Structures are given as C-alpha cells and as structure tokens.
Amino acid sequence: MAPQELKRDLENRHVQLIAIGGTIGTGLFLGSGKAIQLAGPSIIFAYLIVGIAVFFVMRALGELLLSKAGYQSFTDIAEDYLGPRAAFVTGWTYWFCWIMTAMADIIAVGVYVQYWFDIPQWVPAVICLIILLGLNLLTVKNFGELEFWFALIKVVTILALIAIGAILLVIGFKTDAGTVTLSNIWTHGGVFPNGISGFLLSFQMVVFAFVGVELVGVSAAETSNPEKSIPSAINKIPLRILFFYVGAIIALLSINAWTELNPAESPFVKTFSLVGIPIAAGIINFVVLTSAASACNSGMFSTSRILYNLSRNEQAPSHFAKLNKNHVPSNALLISTLVLSVGALLSKLIPETAFGIVTTISAICFIWVWGVILVCHLRYKKTKPELQAGSKFKAPLTPFINYVVLALFAAILIIMLFAEETRPALLLTPLWFILLFVLFTVNRRKREKTNIQGFEPMEG
C-alpha cells in the first residue's frame, strides 16, 4: 500500500523560486499589454496598489500557516475559523481558480508558439499538458526543480530588460519607435491618458497578474523547513513587486510609447525587437513561452494538492487522496489535467476571446480566496489571542489593514460589473458558488443519513 502522506522534498531554494514564479507569469508577460492599453502609464500605480494589498494577504496567510503545525493549506485554516462549509467552498474555488489560470496559460502557450509556427493554438497546448503531466507524476522534487529553473529564466529576463532599459536611457538610444526616454511615460497623453475610468478598468488584469502568489501556502505541506522558508519568501514579495512589476513596466514604457503596444501581443517581445538585436525577440518569446509553461506547471501542482486535501477532509471523492509510489496524488493530478485540457478546446473554439474570459473568472475567484484568508486572520486574532500573542511572524497593521484590503477587493469587483468585457463573467461566476453551497448541503445530509442508519439498533 502506498504511503498516504505527502513528502517534504521541497527545499528552501525551491520555495523561494516558487514564490517568485507565483508572482511572475502570463498576467505580466502577456496580460500587461491589455492592461497598458486600458490604463496607459497609470498602470504602474495599479500594480503598486494591488501588489501592496497582496503582500498583506500573504503576511496574514504566513502567520496563520505557522500558527499550527498540522495545517496543509488554507482550506484547513478556513475550516478552523469559518467552518466546514467555508472550507468546502474555498477549497473547491481555489481548485477552480487554478484551473482557470492554467487554462489561460495553456492558451498563452499556443499564442507564443504561433510566433514561430503557423499551427492551431490547441496543438502546442495539448503537447505542453502531456509533458508537464508526465513530469509531475514522478516526484514533487521534479515540480520544485522545474519551477526553480522556469522562475530563474523569468527573473534573468526581467533583470536584463531593466538593465538594458537603463543603459538605453543613459545613452539616449533611438529605436524605430523613437528615442528611449523616461518622458515617454508622460508625453503621450499624460500619466492617465484614458482618465480614471481606464485606470480602474485595468485592475482586473492586474489582479490576474498576481494570482499564484499564495502558492507558497499550498506548498507548505511539502516544504522541509516551513518556519524558515515561508517567512523568508513572503517578506521578499515587496522587493519583487518593485523590481519585477514596477521596474519592468517603467522600462517597457521608456523604450516604447504605450500607444505603440499591441494588447494582443506580449509587450516584452515587442520591446526587445526594438532594441536592435536580431534574435532578441525570438529569445524573449521563448522566455514568455517557458513562463506560461511554468504557470501551467504551478496550476497542475496546486489543483492536485487541493483535491488531495479536500479528499482527506471528506470534501471530495476518497480516491483523490491516494498517492502513487512517488508520494504524488496521481488521481487528483490526472483529473485536474483532464479538466485543464478544456483550455486547449477553448483555444480551438474561441481563440480570440478565450484568454479574456478565463482571466476574468480566475481574478474573481482569487479575490474570494484572498478575502477568505483575510477574514480567517481576523477570526484568528479575535478568537485565539494567545496564539497571536506568541506568533513569531505577526502580520503588520492588523486588523485595520485587513478591512482596507477587503474594501479594495470589493471595489475591484464593482468595477468589473461596469466593464462590458468583464461583466458577463462576473455575473456568471456566482453560479459556481451557488452550486458549491448546494453540493455541500446535499453531501452533509447524505453523510448524516448514513451515520444515523449506521447506529440503528439491531433487532433480536
């Protein structure tokens, strides 16, 4: 019989790079083009605002995870502080979040491959899924190694972009689009060229750019030294936001006027093609391709682990809790990958709009998950003051900042309601939550009935 415990094979370097990989992905490399089209240079402030909010969510999650040794993920936290119904809904919603996110990444893989080959988007998407599934079925260390190198590629690329941008600024380099200068940020219609409305409408894609940052919490059960690696990874998030988002966007907008960027293409590929190095655009396209594959890899990892955890808590079919000989929840991984393949189908059926639909649904569901983390932290602070007093990783500015960030998330959802592109997904997503509440109620009544029948007295 296979051991039914996850293996703690993720080292500190894996966790650090998983944290980076979680904050740099398709939302930045591809989605930033759409966000820049909506907000213009004011997108810099949108990334700062959401990034700061996400940091406080992560500090709350970090304190909660380290407050009890038995926590496998934040579904366990939700059950402790909000009850089994909240744990059920949050767990399945987080699974759904990553399904949508990984679908977006699979769609992006198809888009990037078309840079070199004139083939249907769904073909490379399916090939990518098969390769990642094979690697993830082996060991959790494979996932950690993949993410380590994928994230390293992303980090090196963005640092190279910032360094090249700085050099071009100093020498006043001229591209086909004009001179590289910081004034490109404010001379093409100002910092808010589309007004406050354009700035606000960009928040959906900005939120999507940060999804996955909480992956550190999911990996806690397979981390060899969570007390050291989790605080370290979380505390570095502000620096990463400044470098990998704000720094990268400033470099992009200094080299290109924002009006020259195509929302359907990666602004990173476009920028490096302007630098004048013949193979630069191809290299960057390869980088953003590996970034999409990395994010899909993270999606496969997180969806399988959340199904495993739900199953152990009797909130999903029991066979999802079974591990293979490599301590990998293979049944959960296989079913998650099968659902993920719908992304490849969407690439075939609606290639033009598929990315926008799945990123909107993903952003909405992640706002729910982040909100639950903040509410759990408020409950923890109120109901277990002795734990909070002894915490070695206290979240700052609580409870005030929890309410501020929750208000920001509520405002972003209201903004999505007014945007024509995001409104349909926002109105449809509540159906998912209604379905989960109904399923939980039906499942609980069925279990109660079974328990009552099991204790009926025997006749005679």
Relative strand content? under 5%
Q: Count all strands and give the number.
A: 2
Mean pLDDT: 80
| The CATH homology group name | Amino acid/polyamine transporter I
Broad structural category = mainly alpha
Q: Rg to the nearest angstrom?
A: 22 Å
- Poorly predicted runs are 455-460
Report on the biggest sheet: 2 strands, antiparallel
- CATH domain topology: Amino acid/polyamine transporter I
Number of helices: 22
Q: Strands across the major sheet, in which order?
A: 1-2
- Number of structural domains: 1
Which CATH architecture would you pick?
Answer: Up-down Bundle
Molecular shape: globular
CATH class: Mainly Alpha
Distance between the termini: 39 Å
Q: What is the helix content? A: over 70%
The SSE order reads HHHHHHHHEEHHHHHHHHHHHHHH
InterPro entries: AA-permease/SLC12A_dom (IPR004841), Amino_acid_permease_CS (IPR004840)
Protein name: D-alanine/D-serine/glycine permease
Membrane topology: Multi-pass membrane protein
Subcellular location: Cell membrane
Describe this structure in words.
There is one protein chain. With 460 residues, the protein is mostly helical. It has a single domain (21-435), classed as Amino acid/polyamine transporter I (Up-down Bundle), CATH 1.20.1740.10. Helix content is 71%, strand content 1%. It contains 22 helices and 2 strands. It has helices at 12-23, 26-29, 31-39, 43-66, 74-82, 84-113, 122-136, 140-171, 195-201, 203-210, 215-218, 226-235, 237-255, 267-274, 280-312, 330-340, 342-349, 354-383, 385-389, 400-418, 423-428, 430-454, and strands at residues 174-175, 178-179. It has a two-stranded antiparallel ribbon with strand order 1-2. Helix 4 packs across helix 18 (354-383), helix 5 packs across helix 18 and helix 14 (267-274) runs antiparallel to helix 15. The longest helix has 33 residues, at 280-312. The protein is globular. Residues 455-460 have low confidence and may be disordered. It comes from Paenibacillus graminis. Pfam families: AA_permease (PF00324). Residues 14-449 form the Amino acid permease/ SLC12A domain. The chain crosses the membrane at residues 15-32, 38-58, 92-113, 119-138, 150-171, 191-216, 237-259, 271-296, 332-350, 356-380, 400-419, 425-442. Its main location: membrane.
